User: What shape does this take?
Amino acid sequence: MVFKALDKFNAIGYLSEKQKSFYESLGAKRLYKISPYIPDENENKNKNNVIGNEKVRFLISGFPISIYRLKESIYIFSRLSKAGKIFHLDICLYGFDYEGLQSEIISLASTLPSYTIFTHLNEKEFNRVLSATDIYLRLNSVDSFGLIVAEAISKGINVITTDVCERYPGSNLVAVDDFETVYSEINYYIKFRKMSGTLPIQQKVVSEIDYDEFLDVFLEP
Assistant: This one.
């Protein structure tokens, strides 16, 4: 039944190699890799929040579960604080506390000199926090494209994220659980107010198409 249903589509879009493999296992044809993010043409591409001696602002977000590595991210900032570095960390939590980690995350954050914890923000509220950010960290350990990564980059915000999967072009990549590299990069940014330029940068996949191009294929007679 599934095979017959797939035959009725002119084209099928996929976001990751895992999705592609799944569709191929079902015998699907005409597969196209598409970007799940449509940038806002009015977004500022050259944003830099750091002025003079103002605090560098960092943002982490996700469910309060282990795959998002929120505790480990906070440990990084705890080390930076103990080293005398000045910064502000915003933490946005959403979703159910499946693993009972939320209270631990909040407790760890409370040891930082400058932080704010937000829970269950709506889109407008979250975008306001994101827009005030200098670096967004997404250190999750499982496959997750991360629309917030795309939004941040399109706003001109630096992003450090794991290479667990293909990321939005312009992402600064680190290996999963390579917290020492993350620490060094953040330390560099706080000191020099710019990225070190040593991290790999996600490039655009040549075969990827945008939604308009995909719709042209999908709607072919």
Strands lie at 12-14, 31-33, 56-62, 87-93, 115-119, 135-138, 158-162, 172-174.
